[in-house]
Amino acid sequence: MPLRSPRRPRVGEPCRGIGLALAGGGFLGAAYELGVLAALAESVDGLELNRLDAYVGVSAGAFIAAGLANGKTPHEMVRIFVEDAEMSLDPATMLRPSAHLWLRALRSAPRAARQAIDASLSEGLRGGAAVAWQTFERIGRLLPSGFLDVRPAERTLQAIFAEPGRTNDFRALAGSLRIVATDIDNGRSVEFGAPGLDHVPISRAVLASSALPGLFPPVGIDGRFYVDGVLNKTLHASVALNQGVGLLLCVNPLVPFASPADRPAGAIAKASLPVILSQSIRTAIRSRMTVGLEKYAITHPNASIVVFEPRNDDAATFFTRIFTVSSRRRICEQAYQHTRADLLARYDDYSRRFASAGLALNRGVLRDRQLTLVRTTPVPVARRAGGLEEGVLRLRHVLDDLDRALRLARAG
């Protein structure tokens, strides 16, 4: 179904409202984004992250944007994703091999093997490298369209959006939510949640936007198939800008690592293949985003765009392990503290930018060095649905929220 693009504000036309654009970055990227958002929620007076005018999410950022539009605060999402009190989004439970796709591939293995043997016998030694490459191609055709099963993640998202006060329907949201994915058959970006594509369940759209090619199979929606929305753009900030927001907050968790000048060269080149690939992807993403931001200064001159990113010299973050709870906890707390420090160091600049949207930085909160986001001591994973354990957990959350509110009130 063709997508109706929103009218772009004319040059000179006043922009109103606040938008949020969140990029991808996998599990660690989501942890970083939550740390940034928690810092903003606490230190920017007047900023209500659950009542923004426009949300745009891509890949991992799609889940967070959908959660915010659904009324979940950054602190609540830290609990269910970063801390181990409610590990309903534990990667170990979501990243499972796709058994049905692997079985389908194995059924084709005997025929492919026979074809490879026949080709080798007919060509003999004369074929050389050509036969080897043909054999490699046949093996490649055996591989499934994705190694991991998307169904556990979809069930988890459906359960989250089915909670009281939440919705899995774009049309029932108070604000505008756009989840961007890529149509694998034509390479074009699509905006789930826009007119004509707002009937798609939010959980399905998030799944499509997060389907990293190779790891996950393309996600089918209405006869089309979609993969990760980052393939075309990093942030898709223009989706929110075209809705006329005056202030756009952007979070990009992936930046290339810049080795300090006093260190010998080769930290990346001598590392493993995944590290080299990560650096390459991060470089391409950041370069592409820089070009986009420069273009938006011309196409949307009346909008103020504020980008939050990690420091590029943080080796501990770049070389961290992806799937461990401790890594997510460290990245989230580090993002929280670095954002607070950055807001305080550039207080006048940020104050000027935020003032245009009726927001103000709280210097007292930013100066409070005792504030932390992630609990120092992990909460044991002993939760069960219903019963006394869940009641105690909910009570602890309420007390935590009350304690944080009191501390912020004293600091502010």
Helix content: 40-55%
Q: Supply the number of helical segments.
A: 16
Order of helices and strands: EHEEHHHEHHHEHEEHEEHEHEHHHEHH
Q: What share of residues are in beta strands? A: 5-15%
Number of beta strands: 12
Oligomeric state of the chains present here: single chain
Q: Give a quick account of the main beta sheet: strands, pairing sense, barrel closure.
A: 8 strands, mixed
Principal-axes shape call = globular
Distance between the termini: 50 Å
Structural class: alpha/beta
Task: Look at the structure and give the mean pLDDT.
Answer: 81
Structure report:
Helices cover 47% and strands 11% of the residues. The protein has 412 residues and is of the alpha/beta class. Strands 1, 3, 6, 7, 8, 9, 10 and 11 form an eight-stranded mixed beta sheet that branches. α1 (26-43) runs antiparallel to α3 and α6 (109-123) packs antiparallel against α7 (129-142). The longest helix is centred in the C-terminal third of the chain and has 27 residues, at 273-299.
Keywords:
8-stranded mixed beta sheet, two-stranded antiparallel ribbon, 12 strands, 412 residues, 16 helices, alpha/beta, 11% strand
What is this structure's SSE topology?
Blueprint: E1 18-22, H1 26-43, E2 44-45, E3 54-58, H2 60-69, H3 74-81, H4 91-94, E4 96-97, H5 99-107, H6 109-123, H7 129-142, E5 148-149, H8 151-161, E6 176-183, E7 189-192, H9 202-209, E8 219-221, E9 224-227, H10 237-241, E10 247-251, H11 273-299, E11 304-308, H12 315-318, H13 325-345, H14 347-355, E12 360-361, H15 363-367, H16 387-411
Parallel strand pairs: 1-3, 1-10, 3-6, 10-11
Antiparallel strand pairs: 2-12, 4-5, 6-7, 6-9, 8-9
Helix pairs in contact: 1-2, 1-3, 1-13, 2-9, 6-7, 8-9
